[in-house]
Amino acid sequence: MVAQNAPVSVAEYLTIEASSEIKREYVDGAVYAMAGGTLAHDRIANDVRTVMNAHLGAGPCALYGPHVRLRVSPTLYYYPDGHGPLRGEPRSRRHRGVRATPDRRGTL
Predict the structure, then answer these.
(1) Domains of the chain: residue spans and CATH
(2) pTM to 2 decimal places
(3) pLDDT per residue over 72-84, tens digit each?
């Protein structure tokens, strides 16, 4: 991963991401392009999400995949292979696809 030199604000990062075809992670003002994955990694992540979804069933939780950005803190955004917030948790109203981190969550 390669970081940009000048710090970027969260608002700038989210604006860039909204129109980008590549995913980037944001850590304390630094923006990192995500590296490509492997077929083996993707298969393992899919298998784990399948098991987790079967376990969650129709309960109050939902599992999201690697295309949903996760806000871990005000200065940390990334794309985990999977994460499961409680349904109905608040999400960003300005930027689609951003999930906030509640107290109860699992990530892959």
Answers:
(1) 10-107 (3.90.1570.10)
(2) 0.71
(3) 889 999 888 888 7
